[in-house]
Amino acid sequence: MFLMIGNGRLARHLCFYFDSLGISYASWHRDTHSQADFLAQANQATRILLAISDKAIEPFILSYPHIPKNKWLHLSGALSIPGIYAAHPLGSFGEKLNPPEWYRDIYFIIEQQSCSDLSLPLSILLPGLPNASAVIRSQDKPYYHSLCVLSNNFSTILFQKLFSGLEKELNIPKEAAYAYLKQTVFNLEKTEQALTGPFARNDQNTIEKNKQALQERQDVFADIYQAFIDLVQKSNLTKIRRDT
């Protein structure tokens, strides 16, 4: 039996997934359960899953020194605690739950803490989950997590800017951009040559007009646009694709 600690988005999504798979688990959160409840459930659990904030994970573990270390499993993508198992679900967990089949596609990224300490496979860490997994070293976790944040959070900010600009500045419903968003994701999935538009064509005239339009509105995203111009130039991304 798993014991899920926490009641945030990740905990709710994973509990829903466990339900869909028929996996036995219990839930505990300090706002709704007592310490006595935790101790009773922890004794019964084969694995204690920590779906709480990074800063709370190690203090929580240290509060219960009598619990064997091999029972704990934290789900942080950035944190590494010597002697504690870690498996990060590489997914984006919003306010709404997803269909059960969506969760099956999530990769779990398992931490290997040293060359001599082989990490356990997902089938032992979280028995019953059919998900694929990969292994990374402890020292690579900060870089791994930075990639996750760059791709998910930053792209979310940019598309939220698109939706807001369409609705508030141009009186266009944000739904008009949904197909654009879906095609962007499709392109990323299907080809390495996913870059389109003026950056793909190396159309400097259009790029400059874009930047000027943002500057004229005193839009803070003008600086971000310039940062991407610099990034593309430094990384030679314009060589990826030059068609329209």
Polypeptide structure, described:
The chain has 244 residues and is α/β, with parallel strands linked by helices. The chain is built from ten helices and seven strands. Strands 2-1-3-4-5-6-7 form a seven-stranded mixed sheet, with helices on both faces. Strand 1, helix 1 (9-21) and strand 2 (25-28) form a beta-alpha-beta unit. 17% of the residues are buried.
Brief account:
This protein is an alpha/beta fold and 244 residues long.
Q: Tally the structural domains.
A: 2
Compute the separation of the termini in Å. 54 Å
CATH H-level homologous superfamily name of the largest domain: NAD(P)-binding Rossmann-like Domain
Helix-residue proportion: 40-55%
CATH top level of the largest domain is: Alpha Beta
> What is the strand arrangement across the widest sheet?
2-1-3-4-5-6-7
Q: What is the tally of beta strands?
A: 7
Strand content: 5-15%
Q: Examine the coordinates and then state which fold CATH places here, giving the name of the CATH topology of the largest domain.
A: Rossmann fold
Helix/strand/pairing class, anyone?
A: alpha/beta
Largest sheet: 7 strands, mixed
On the 0 to 100 scale, the average pLDDT is 91
What is the radius of gyration computed over CA atoms, rounded to a whole number of angstroms? Answer: 22 Å
Instruction: Please trace the helix and strand order, writing H or E for each element.
Output: EHEHEHEEHEHEHHHHH
* Outline: elongated
Low-confidence stretches: 240-244
Q: How many alpha or pi helices? A: 10
CATH architecture of the largest domain: 3-Layer(aba) Sandwich
